[in-house]
């Protein structure tokens, strides 16, 4: 009798077709449609943003219109099915990796439980294998002999509006973090499958505003925020003044200076939004202390590249500013700030897309003499590589006790960790700038790191619930070190992380802050002729910079 | 032999069925049920840990205030997933039915069913607390969203940027053509 009641308990509350009814979905995945409702989709791109991008040479963003994913009619252009199939064909010919990824998956399932979206939602279509199958099924149907002959029996299906809607839902429930590909025995990069899905969707005018607006801003003024050159300069100047107020050391920085040795490019969020601006203050203090001959640029004023989240052509166009500006200014090499996806673009695509950068030199630290052979081709090094090298050679004086107010852990930002292998330098820096820090559990760090859940342009507030689900595996590991080691700060090397992990912590682990690594470097840095300001700490007592660069004076 | 001993004897079985029932509310729950590690399987791991703790509290007439920690562990997750409020909370009820069923199948212990009032009342209190937590989590979620908008991390695209204040309209030749 009791179990009969239990059954009723399930059924009486059920609202969807497959929730709370048992472990097995009642229908085959192909027969389960994507249902859009407020909160589970990011808002579509504004008409003027799409029109602007489409007006640019070499870019194709057609079908600008008012539409919404939760309406039946997506106002697709006539013949959109052919456009999509032609687009698949073009990409299969152009990208050999895509052809291999479509053919070589044996559905072993190694990736299935590795995706943070799957782990946070329990939705089978968020298993990377099934997400790729959304495209693979169409590929099979129209581009393989078995599919052409046997159709559904061979795992194929026709391109329909239902399939397109499913592509939109699940290619925007993937942050291209590439955790799944770490576990794939064939090395299938499911992130690239997502990239192809998004490219194909743009061919028929299906894209989201949170990506296309920053991308169009970036093309227009040089950075995501749409900051015009004078505003960008003003913001950096304000930060430099803040550093002077706090440390007593005047910051001598410059903009668009020809003949500088180094061009410095960082995500514009570092210049504008908390807590990233403390990271930018850390850069300013460090460069001042070592006397680096460097310049900021108001043209290449954005490290991030939202083109990566749209299509190949826009990514290339936005990225081109880095080399173009380096050439114009005549710098020897580029140092890049703490950004996530910027480093995927720089490390994996920039040289091919916009190189060779033969007008620059192999990066060589003017302070230590170290030659960064790893950047021989790209001519661009990561701030953490540069800083770790300074520490290794004893070229900067650090006082870890100045970070006594923080007990950090370190989040490996997905792209620096998995796309460029930056795992040990940040840890080496942490060892020298804080009294103590702790690692999160082994299967949540380094190459197995869990995404913040909001990367690839999904850091928009209308999908906050989705972001909290996707961020659960990361937040869960942070909670563990909070409970066990009293961690109060989540450090990272990514601007999107700095924004999104803040919200993630505010929901899952209130009280845990988020910071960039260079902020902690700036806090610990002992500067020549410094006169550090006094401030009040959390305990109400007055001391020198009790909250480091965050101290209010 | 008494009810307390019956609760202890059947603890593993009841908790196991309770966890199984709770995780069955996910579309694809096989991994959530099997994944052994709390870090690689946060939904399954936290659900198992929370319900195990809660069972001990419910069966020993514990202080209802103590229910909150394990309930928060589970409700914080279910509050932001694709559940209605009732779907999110329903599994907390389930332990009543599972316990009755298991005791009913044991001829030596089925007489204890008549003594389940205190236990079932504790479950009712836990369900009410779960509703409170569900609402707290939802409110917190919206506060996080508002905070994000207010603190300008949304500035990646929107118009609080100082340079946007300089814009007049699309036709102003000083501005860029968008």
Q: What descriptors fit this protein?
A:
heterodimer; A: 553 residues; mainly alpha; 2 domains; three-stranded parallel sheet; 9 strands; B: 178 residues; Globin-like; 8 helices; 0% strand
Low-confidence stretches of chain B: 153-178
CATH architecture of chain B: Orthogonal Bundle
Would you tell me the overall average pLDDT of chain A?
94
Low-pLDDT sequence parts of chain A: 14-24
Judging from the principal axes of the Cα atoms, what is the shape of chain B? Answer: globular
Calculate the terminal CA-CA distance of chain B, rounded to whole Å: 80 Å
* Count of all domains of chain B: 1
Count of β-strands of chain A: 9
Number of distinct helices of chain B: 8
Q: Say how many strands of chain B there are.
A: 0
Provide the gyration radius of chain A in Å: 24 Å
Strand content of chain B: under 5%
Largest interface, with counts of residues having CB < 8 Å to the other chain, equals:
A-B, 77 and 66 residues
Which descriptor suits the 3D outline of chain A? globular
Q: Provide mean pLDDT of chain B, rounded.
A: 86
By secondary-structure content and strand pairing, the structural class of chain A works out as mainly alpha
- What structural category do the secondary elements of chain B indicate? mainly alpha
The total number of structural domains of chain A is 2
**β-sheet strand percentage of chain A:** 5-15%
Our measurement of the CA-to-CA distance between the termini of chain A, rounded to an integer number of angstroms, reads: 68 Å
Query: Percentage of helical residues of chain A?
Result: 40-55%
């Amino acid at each position: 009798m009791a179990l009969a009641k239990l059954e009723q308990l399930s059924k009486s509350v059920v609202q969807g077709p497959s929730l709370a009814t048992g472990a097995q979905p009642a229908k085959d995945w192909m027969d389960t449609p994507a249902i859009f409702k407020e909160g589970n989709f990011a808002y579509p791109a504004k008409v003027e943003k799409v029109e602007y991008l489409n007006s640019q040479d070499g870019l194709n963003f057609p079908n600008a219109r008012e539409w919404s994913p939760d309406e039946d009619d997506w106002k697709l252009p006539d013949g959109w099915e052919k456009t999509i199939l032609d687009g698949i064909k073009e990409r299969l010919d152009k990208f050999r990796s895509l052809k291999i990824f479509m053919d070589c998956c044996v559905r072993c399932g190694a990736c299935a439980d590795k995706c943070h979206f799957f782990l946070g939602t329990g939705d089978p279509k968020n298993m990377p294998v099934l997400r790729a199958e959304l495209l693979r099924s169409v590929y099979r149907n129209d581009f393989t002999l078995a599919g052409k002959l046997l159709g559904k029996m061979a795992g194929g299906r026709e391109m329909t509006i239902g399939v397109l809607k499913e592509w939109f839902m699940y290619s925007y429930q993937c942050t291209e973090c590439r955790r799944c590909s770490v576990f794939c025995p064939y090395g299938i990069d499911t992130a690239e499958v997502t990239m192809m899905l998004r490219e194909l969707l743009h061919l028929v005018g299906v894209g989201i505003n949170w990506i296309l607006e920053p991308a169009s801003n970036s093309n227009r003024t040089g950075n995501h925020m749409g900051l015009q050159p004078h505003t960008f300069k003003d913001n950096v100047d304000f930060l430099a003044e803040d550093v002077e107020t706090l440390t007593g050391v005047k910051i001598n920085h410059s903009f668009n200076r020809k003949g500088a040795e180094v061009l410095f490019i960082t995500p514009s969020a570092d210049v504008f939004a908390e807590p990233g601006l403390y990271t930018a203050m850390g850069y300013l203090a460090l460069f001042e202390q070592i006397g680096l001959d460097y310049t900021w640029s108001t043209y290449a004023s954005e490290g991030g590249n939202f083109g990566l989240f749209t299509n190949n052509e826009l990514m290339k166009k936005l990225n081109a500013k880095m080399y173009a500006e380096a050439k114009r200014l005549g710098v020897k090499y580029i140092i890049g700030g703490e950004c996530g996806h910027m480093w995927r673009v720089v490390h994996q695509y920039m040289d091919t897309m916009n190189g060779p950068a033969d007008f620059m030199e192999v990066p060589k630290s003017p302070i230590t003499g170290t030659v960064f052979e790893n950047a021989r081709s790209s001519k661009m090094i990561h701030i953490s590589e540069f800083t770790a090298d300074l520490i290794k050679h004893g070229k900067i004086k650090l006082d870890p006790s100045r970070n006594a107010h923080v007990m950090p852990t370190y989040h490996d930002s997905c792209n620096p960790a998995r796309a460029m292998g930056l795992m040990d330098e940040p840890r080496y820096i942490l060892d020298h700038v804080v009294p103590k820090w702790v690692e999160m559990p082994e299967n949540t760090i380094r190459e197995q790191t869990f995404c913040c859940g909001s990367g690839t342009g999904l850091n928009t507030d209308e999908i906050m619930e989705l972001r909290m689900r996707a961020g659960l595996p990361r937040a869960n590991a942070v909670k563990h070190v909070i409970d066990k080691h009293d961690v109060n700060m989540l450090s990272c090397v990514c601007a999107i992380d700095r924004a999104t992990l803040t919200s993630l912590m505010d929901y899952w682990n209130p009280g845990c802050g988020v910071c960039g690594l260079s902020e902690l470097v700036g806090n610990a840095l002992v500067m020549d002729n410094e006169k550090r300001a006094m401030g009040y700490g959390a305990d109400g007592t007055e001391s020198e910079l009790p909250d480091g660069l965050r101290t209010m004076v | 032999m008494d009810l307390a001993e019956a609760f202890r004897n059947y603890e593993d079985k009841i908790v196991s069925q309770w966890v199984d029932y709770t995780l069955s509310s996910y579309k694809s729950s096989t991994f959530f049920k099997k994944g052994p590690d709390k870090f690689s399987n946060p939904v399954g791991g936290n659900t198992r840990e929370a319900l195990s703790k809660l069972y001990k509290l419910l069966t020993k007439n514990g202080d209802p205030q103590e229910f909150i920690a394990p309930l928060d562990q589970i409700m914080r997750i279910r509050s932001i997933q694709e559940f209605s409020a009732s779907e999110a909370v329903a599994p907390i009820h389930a332990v009543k039915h599972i316990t009755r069923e298991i005791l009913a199948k044991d001829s030596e212990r089925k007489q204890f069913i008549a003594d389940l009032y205190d236990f079932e009342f504790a479950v009712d209190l836990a369900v009410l607390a779960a509703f409170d937590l569900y609402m707290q989590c939802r409110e917190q979620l919206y506060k996080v969203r508002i905070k994000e908008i207010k603190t300008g991390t949304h500035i990646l695209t929107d118009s609080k940027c100082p340079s946007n204040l300089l814009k007049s309209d699309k036709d102003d030749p000083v501005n860029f053509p968008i």
